[in-house]
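[Structure tokenization] protein backbone as discrete codes

[Encoding] learned vocabulary of local backbone shapes

[Begin record] amino acids and matching fold tokens:

___
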Amino acid sequence: MANIASQKKRIARTERERLENRRYTSSVKTSLRRLEVAVDAKDGDATEEAYRTVCSRIDRAVRSGAFHRNRGARKKARAARLRSSV
């Protein structure tokens, strides 16, 4: 455990940031799963709604720094390919 006050603050901040990144990552994964379910059900309206949600969540994760922009682009491309398979 750290003895220096600034290091204690840094540890707390790092933990908060890690949890925030986990929330972004988890929400992207969940929305991708929902998109897959909509595609499997061959429901066009649900697929479009799920795709918009996925793109929005990915963009938000990239903007916050939870995802690198290339990772975000790759995930969006895979989601678009999945959407077009309906």
